[in-house]
Design a protein that fits this description.
9 helices; binds ligand 9D3; Alpha/beta knot; 260 residues; Trp Operon Repressor, Chain A; alpha/beta; two-stranded antiparallel sheet; 37% helix; elongated
Amino acid sequence: MMRVDLLSIFPDFFTSPLGEGIIRRARQAQIIDIAIHNIRDHAGDRHQMTDDRPYGGGEGMVMKPEPLAACLKAVPRRGRSRVILLSPRGVPFSQQQARLYADYDQLILVCGRYEGVDERFSSHHVDEECSIGDYVLSGGELAALVVIDAVCRLLPGALGCADSAERDSFSRSLLKHGQYTRPPVFEGLEVPAVLLSGDHLAIARHRFLESVRLTLARRPDLLSGLELSKAERALLAQEGLLAQVEQARQEQKQALEISA
Ligand code: 9D3
């Protein structure tokens, strides 16, 4: 069973998100054990202050190191464990990072607030810093929930359908085609006829082409990782998409060369 410990000054933040859906079922099935720790409980002084003004001046407040260290010390360690600080200056989170995290026995997720945490805590008590993307959040709590959700799905038995996790990771270099369910006509809009045809080869081709068109429009950067079979190349050529795909791959290659 994976153990996750959350350190935060807003412990109530997690109750509902961790009490629904796949995470709730994984907790019930004892696939994941999640404990929430209130950093404020480890602030020694009467006012339970967890933040203070930055030495050297500047905007905002900094989280004091002692309550963080005391809270962390109170967390029982088990097996291979990793202390991760959610922070805007962390390594970008990704499916690959999620797979690495899923291999630990214990993740200790520290949620910062304010302008950040005292550097002596992050440099001496934290194994790595993790960001979920280039936008400004109010603190690490939502980021920690994102990490838990992505990691939980990868734990053996967490998903009902055994191969879903593998399928998710398998289809990384193309965006998913649109999907349809009943009714056959919705607000005058029909389901593409090919999907009702029962012709599985034609359906697979249709979906592949739609995936390629979507990826070209929204995430051309993904196409550099796409491996095409002879039949797929022929199909793209036939639809006039091969040149566009090759050009997007070329442009992505150049973008990577410039950034390197
Ligand atoms: C002045 C520079 N800002 C850093 C980019 C200050 C700042 C903004 C937001 C300091 C802390 C925060 C709070 N954010 C998080 O704790 C955080 C976060 C995020 O803001 N974006 C993406 N991932 C994460 S993980 C934790």
